[in-house]
Amino acid sequence: MIAGGIIMEKTAGQEGKGLKMLGTLLLMYVLTGILLLILALLLYKFQLNEKFVSAGIIGVYIFAGLTGGLVIGKRMGKRKFLWGLAVGTVYFLILFAGSAAMNHGLPEDLKRMILVWIMCGGAGMIGGMLRS
Fold first, then answer.
1. What is the pTM of this model?
2. Is 132's pLDDT higher than 60?
3. In b/e form, how buried is each residue of 15-35, taking b as 16+ CB within 10 angstroms?
4. Do 62 and 117 touch, CB atoms closer than 8 A?
5. Dist. CA 95–CA 115, nearest whole Å
6. 94 and 67 in contact (C-beta within 8 Å)?
7. How far apart are CA 130 and CA 1, in angstroms?
8. Of residues 129, 102, 132, 128, the one with CA closest to residue 28
């Protein structure tokens, strides 16, 4: 009975971690959507060039990663940098899957995708290490 109780207790804790991760990812994507909408409005209003838009998109990814890392670090309490890295990587993987689905295949510029993964995961990890 005690062993069963311990197993059930661990399972319940794992579910809580999963929900915290999903909640953090949801926050990251809502933030991404709002920031990309603002970037699109700026593009429309000021006729921005492609370099500015690309830099803006990268900035959005980094800001979302930092925010997600900070939030998941607070929620988890221990090993914050690993949780930040994890949430940044999952964020990237969902972006990657969406991009692959929209383009009907893997992107041609794999180096750029690896760089985006490093930015998303690294920003999440740094966010997880920030003190609050």
1. 0.84
2. no
3. eeeeebbeebbebbeeebeeb
4. no
5. 13
6. no
7. 41
8. 128
In angstroms, rounded to a whole number, what is the distance separating the alpha carbons of residues 129 and 70? 7
Query: Residues for the chain: how many in total?
Result: 132
User: Radius of gyration (Cα) for the chain, nearest Å?
Assistant: 17
Query: Could you tell me where the DSSP H helices lie in 47-79?
Result: 50-76
Beta-carbon contacts of residue 124 (< 8 Å; ≥ 6 apart): 65, 66, 68, 69, 72, 84, 85, 86, 87, 88, 89, 91
- Please tell me what DSSP assigns to residue 106: -
Q: How far apart are CA 115 and CA 69, in angstroms?
A: 18
Q: Which residues contact 8 (CB under 8 A, 6 or more apart)?
A: none
Two structure tokens written together for 96: 């990657």
pLDDT band at 22 (very low <50, low <70, confident <90, very high): very high
Residue pointed to by tokens 């700026």:
42
To which residue do tokens 């964020």 refer?
Answer: 91
